[in-house]
Design goal:
D-Amino Acid Oxidase, Chain A, domain 2, globular, alpha+beta, 6-stranded mixed beta sheet, 566 residues, 12 helices
């Protein structure tokens, strides 16, 4: 007999030893063993409670009438392992040397072969073959308290049989970590998402529009509004809260040598210089991405993705020398970040920092300096992820609302408006900016992701260099390209979409979005190097329908970075 799954009613039914077994997933099932099972626990079950799952049983009887005729032989009511997102925990424990975890396997033996295979490789070789970010224990931080785990685990169990959307944001245990400007953003219409416990504005609902998501596989209720956020940022000036960035300081007499060995780019040599740097895995793939600012001869400020804070910081600490020559300080919670971007951002900065010189000559692209925004000390870095003139404003977090208010007041006649993560992602796609976990991964050689500007094999020895060169000599299987998707009307690539050439599947999309500034549906994808030339035609599967796609030049918006360097 076939295995049946009824997602609407939350159960599965399959043949079992000549009978039928029903597996119901109820909403509101309580957590158990919060403090762990007792030492003598083994196979015990809880008291039967068929009334609690009566609706599931009746639904199964309706769907499979024979199930209602055979009678109940045995009820199994016991514990099942869960995690806040329903995925298992497989990999290294943060902060501990050679301590490994494999737990939270709610689907039991189903994952045994793959989990054992990758964990064994990770232990023996130092890294797995497959990007394991989705199950890495370090996807959580110390915000995952006992009360958080109780609420999120119950939520994960309740959502096993619900439909999951690519823009889904679950509400359990939220809000938890909020930047000081959270209430100000909310008053301006912010609809929030969560990353690593932090609340981040995903998009902004205009006045009269409900501040709520309507998740979809297609362009959702926020599509028009993020288009307007992009338009305003392109024409005027936008404000983005990126306080969830992971931030740390690497300092000490050995700091420069340590970082030089850890990353594949050259270390910033001049105080205030900003470099984009990648830490490679031993295999030559990409493990982490950092923005590094030199503070002085022995101190560097590192910024990386907020969702990967524990992964990135654990990587740094586990590679640090043990002689005390390098110190690590996690300053994530102490430093807020507001981003101003758009053609009028220079005017805005000159208004809030009247003693600062923000001209190209005095404040070039990829440089930083300390300024006073209003009365608040701020490290302004001329860099952003959207491809417009702008600055990241890093500041002691206690000054954030003062800075926020100063920017909004000074920018009122410049058209300043906030924008969210979804608008940022749409703009980064138009610049072909890579992202860790999509275009950048241990599964792809750094040169398959075309990081030639940032990976310098001849700078000297660094982690992953030799394996990358060896990989290059053997030949690459992939090449990252930017695609324009034709004739799309209501859905865009989300990543993972299969790519076809002459009817044969040859690659996959890494991410996608609609490019509002260029008026095109865009994607980035890994394809064979023999097919990466501009003009090469493909087909991309979106929701079961194939759409024509063509390779276009990188950075379809402002390819010469004239706006960024304006």
């Amino acid at each position: 007999m076939p295995l049946l799954r009824d997602s609407d009613n939350g159960w599965y039914l399959r043949e079992e030893a000549g009978g039928l077994i029903l597996g119901p997933y109820e909403y509101g099932a309580p957590v158990c063993y919060v403090d762990g099972p007792s030492d003598d626990s083994e196979y015990e079950l809880f008291q039967e409670d068929l009334e609690r799952i009566e609706d599931h049983i009746e639904s199964a009887m309706f769907r499979v009438p024979a199930f209602g005729e055979v009678g109940v032989k045995k009820v199994y009511n016991g514990a099942i392992a869960y995690t806040p997102d329903g995925n298992p925990i497989i990999g290294p424990a943060p902060g501990l040397k050679n301590f490994w975890l494999s737990e939270g396997h709610s689907f039991g033996v189903t994952a045994a072969g793959g989990a054992g295979w990758q964990l064994a490789e990770w232990i023996v070789e130092g890294e797995p073959t497959i990007d394991m970010t989705g199950v890495d224990p370090r996807r959580y931080g110390n915000y995952a308290t006992e009360s958080y785990l109780i609420e999120k685990n119950e939520e994960a169990y309740a959502n096993v049989f619900t439909i999951h959307y690519p823009d889904e944001e679950r509400e359990g245990a939220r809000p938890l970590r909020t930047a000081p400007c959270y209430d100000r953003m909310k008053a301006l219409g912010a609809v929030f998402g969560a990353k690593f416990g932090w609340e981040r504005p995903n998009w902004f609902a205009p006045e009269g529009v409900p501040q709520e998501d309507h998740w979809s596989f297609r362009r959702s209720n926020w599509f028009e509004h993020i288009g307007n956020e992009v338009k305003n940022t392109t024409e005027n000036v936008g404000l983005l809260d990126m306080s969830a960035f992971a931030k740390c300081r690497i300092s000490g007499a050995g700091a420069e040598a340590f970082l030089d060995n850890l990353i594949a780019n050259r270390i910033p040599k001049k105080v205030g210089r900003v470099n984009l740097c990648h830490a490679l895995a031993e295999s030559g793939g990409v493990h982490s991405e950092f923005t590094i600012i030199r503070e002085n001869d022995q101190s560097f400020y590192l910024v990386s993705a907020g969702a990967l804070q524990a992964v990135d910081h654990d990587w740094l600490k586990k590679h640090m020398p043990e002689d005390g020559s390098v110190q690590f300080s996690n300053i994530t919670n102490a430093v807020g970040v507001l981003v101003v971007a758009g053609p009028k951002s220079r005017q805005l900065m000159e208004r809030v920092c009247p003693r600062g010189d923000f001209s190209n000559e005095a404040f070039p692209w990829l440089s930083s300096k300390w300024v006073d925004v209003g009365r608040a000390p701020t490290l302004a870095a001329r860099v952003n992820y959207v491809g417009e003139l702008g600055w990241e404003l890093h500041h002691p977090i206690e000054y954030q609302n003062h800075i926020f208010d100063a920017l909004m007041a000074a920018g009122e006649d410049l058209g300043i408006k906030p924008f969210g993560i979804r608008a940022m992602d749409a703009m980064r796609m138009e610049k072909s900016y890579r992202m860790v976990g999509t275009e950048l991964s241990i599964e792809y050689a750094a040169f398959e992701s075309h990081l030639e500007r940032f990976v310098i094999p001849n700078k000297g020895s660094f982690i992953g260099r030799d394996k990358l060169v060896e990989w290059q000599q053997k030949g690459f299987a992939n090449s990252l390209v930017t695609l324009e998707i034709k004739d799309v009307d209501d859905a865009d690539v989300i990543g993972g979409n299969p790519i076809y050439h002459d009817g044969k599947m040859v690659g996959r999309a890494t991410s996608g979005n609609y490019g509002f500034r260029v008026g095109k549906s865009l994607a980035m994808a890994m394809v064979p190097p023999s097919l990466d030339a501009e003009g090469t035609e493909f087909e991309v599967d979106i929701l079961g329908k194939r759409f024509a796609a063509v390779v276009i030049a990188e950075s379809p918006f402002d390819p010469n970075n004239e706006r960024l360097r304006a």
